[in-house]
Write a structure and sequence with these properties.
- With 228 residues, the chain is an alpha/beta fold.
- It folds into 2 domains: 81 residues, D-Maltodextrin-Binding Protein, domain 2 (3-Layer(aba) Sandwich), CATH 3.40.190.10; 113 residues, Periplasmic binding protein-like II (D-Maltodextrin-Binding Protein, domain 2).
- The protein has 6 helices and 8 strands.
- Strands 2-1-3-8-4-7-5-6 form an 8-stranded mixed beta sheet, with helices on both faces.
- Helix 2 crosses helix 6.
- The radius of gyration is 28 Å and the shape is elongated.
Length: 228
């Protein structure tokens, strides 16, 4: 009985020593992928998450003119930025629309009428085939990706009227137009709800993903998936 107890007492510390001395190699952890996106490009976030699979995506809502590929692995936006120096990959397209309140009797506009309504030459809806009521134009900041496209395509790179109100994001634009029968604004088709009506299609815009010149590991597989 004593010999057996003595053997167990010697064996137990030895077992503990073997366990404590064994090395466990940690499994490698992939670096998260930093993504910057504009408000207009938000409908494509779900596709990016799907294509990333088990890769971790850290998404940051960033104005188009503030996107910085020194701080992000990917940047997604609508339309090509000026002086593009980074690789760009088109993953889709979207339409830029002019929107009004559904109760507005105007159902269709010409490019000349749209220009006049946004540059201030037309200040009453009766001059665009509507009711005798004042026009309230809404716009995004000039450097917003879809606002820059609108200004170039419709206003020949001139700004909108100084009396136009600024929406800070698409939700604010939608709320403003859906609640005011005299309002007019712009929005990309993928974000348009039933609470507003489109009366003019400005242009079709490419949806672009920008990357660094030497993208991080795993970026190309995401891009390939997005372009399928």
């Amino acid at each position: 009985m004593k010999a057996s107890v003595y053997f167990i007492a010697l064996l137990t510390p030895a077992c503990l020593l073997l366990v404590s001395c064994s090395t466990v190699t940690p499994s490698p952890t992939a670096e998260p992928i930093a993504l910057q996106y504009t408000a207009a490009s938000s409908p494509w976030l779900a596709s990016i998450y799907d294509c990333a699979g088990n890769k971790v995506i850290i998404a940051d809502l960033t104005a188009a003119d503030m996107q910085d590929l020194q701080a992000a692995d990917l940047a997604i936006r609508l339309g090509q930025p000026d002086n593009l120096t980074s690789p760009a990959f088109q993953i889709g397209s979207d339409d830029l629309l002019v929107i009004v309140n559904p109760q507005n009797p105007v159902k269709q506009l010409t490019v000349a009428q749209v220009r006049g309504l946004f540059d201030g030459q037309i200040q009453n809806w009766k001059d665009a085939g509507g009711a005798d009521t004042p026009v309230q134009a809404w716009a995004f900041t000039r450097t917003d990706d879809i606002q820059a496209i609108f200004n170039h395509s419709v206003l020949n790179d001139s700004p909108v009227s100084s009396v136009a109100r600024l929406a800070s994001n698409p939700d604010e634009m939608i709320q403003a137009v859906s609640k005011d029968i005299n309002a007019i604004g712009i929005l990309n088709r993928r974000l348009k709800p039933s609470s507003v009506s489109d009366v003019f299609t400005v242009t079709s815009m490419p949806v672009l993903v920008l990357t660094r010149s030497n993208p991080a590991q795993g970026i190309f597989s995401i891009l390939s998936c997005l372009q399928k």
